Fold:
Amino acid sequence: MTVLMRVTEVSGRPVVTLHGDDVAQVRDVVYGGGNGEVAGFTLSGRGLLAGPLKQGLPWSGVRALGRDAVIIDDESVFRPRDDVVARAQARGGDVFGSQVLTDAGLELGEVVDVVIDVDAYADVVGYEIDPTEAVSKDNKRVLIPLPDTLAVSGERLIVPASAVDFVTDDLAGFGAAVEEFRARLSQTGPEA
Amino acid sequence: MRFSEGKGHPVVATHSADTVGKVQRFVVDASQSRVVALVLKKTAGKAEVLRWDDVITFGPDAVTVESAGRLVQPDGQLARLADKKHAVLGRRVLTDAGNEVGEVDDVEFDPVDGSIRHLLTTGGEIAGSQLLGLGSYALMVRQT
Structure:
């Protein structure tokens, strides 16, 4: 079963051990760049006055990412924050605000959120974009599926032109759209 | 028996027939899925915790104990568990998949051995065998 989530909803979630203690909360999601995975999280302390922590949470230390909390075994899975972030930046960096362009040269819009599938490992399966008129007339945010691998630069990402056929505005139906899109890519092109 | 039924039970010393206190709260070790002690009120001194192993019987109308000398002021792990912060009733319940289930309304326990049979939560019933831990944030249970 796929479990889809917008990463902006993950920020602020408590990080809770199996003992039931809340030891941190998620500050930002750190991406592993071009291969479309979540590398981990930067953390803040709990409570109103708590600032950023020097410790980060690599994805390998996450036991589960649920609706209400991030579950870890215990605090021994934390790593120095700079280790978690540096590994990710070496491979890509932040996609928010990047322009999405198809390989046919059509501008689709600007990335405003990232959709991840958190079932087994955290795979980035799509982006929520602020669309251009070519994609949506009424300017409402839409979801576009991503292939397994993706070309990303600092300002732009390239998706296959057929992604446009699978655009949806509903997260509930998006999992099926991603699967169909990826199935079509594997039938038609070696680049998928 | 439920926590709500056991709360307020008089604790009676079998040697003297005196009431040494009343059950105020149940102390739970979630990793063992059992009640490990009772916190009492209206005790004569500062010792107000009764270890489950020192309970003779948790009966339908009263709890029996040998004498008031069995009451302790807890230290170490027992003190941590007996702290009000670790009270089970009203506690948030979170699964190991990171999803909230609800809050604990009541607990069904076995008065013979203190084992926890079920949690009755606002989100449904949870078997005692699913308990994982009880911390500052939540009572952790295994997702089924």
